[in-house]
Amino acid sequence: MAICEICGGEMLERVGCKIGICDCNGKSYPRIRFGAEKRFEDVFGEEDSCPDCLAPFGSFHHFGCDIEECPVCGEAIYGDCKCDLVFPDLEDLVIIKRAEQDDLQKILNLQYLAYQSEAKLFNNPDIPPLKQSLTDVVNEYQKGIVLKAEDVKGNIIGSVRAYSENGTVYIGKLIVHPERQGKGIGTKLLINIENEYPGCRYELFTSTKSEKNICLYERLGYAIFKEKEITEELKFLYLEKQN
């Protein structure tokens, strides 16, 4: 049994699914569900059309392979495609891909929602992420890369953004919808944004009070290298990772 590179736990072997994109409505559908008895080569070809509109499937993102998933941190190691993250249940299916400019208002709305907990930590509704405008986000989009995490219905439930400068990739605004936190989405977003900039030094920061964020970053190989005091109450930890 394989060992999870993230947390060191034993990986569970699962049989995954192939994801079809309907030519008619653009929705994603798993061709097969998870199961222990059938492998991909045994079932491919049984379903050739969208269950909603019967239009043929277009391109496929995820190809046949066994999926090993860590029961502790939810990290999955799989085969061919880097843009799909496959979970055992359809409602937990998450697709991570680059955001389009039309997505930015929804991402900003999610940002406002996700940072409410941070604002409560400091009893301050005016923290910078809650003061950003759409123009600010557009500028960041044009400067670097913004990723989004979508559920099976196409709702944006997470995002992260980054840009590269002088050999360092600066990562920020790693957000997940409050109702979807704790399911590995933040981990997958961070890994995917790193994959957009392979072989670089990565840097990010978080407040000293954000214990869950610090734990996540350290688990993924980041190390604290600097602390910055903004006020007596507000301090930031800067973390780095070198690939």
TrEMBL record:
GO terms for molecular function: acyltransferase activity, transferring groups other than amino-acyl groups. Pfam families: Acetyltransf_7. Keywords: Acyltransferase, Transferase. The keyword Transferase applies. Residues 94-243 form the N-acetyltransferase domain. InterPro entries: Acyl_CoA_acyltransferase (IPR016181), GNAT_dom (IPR000182). The keyword Transferase applies. This is Acetyltransferase, GNAT family.
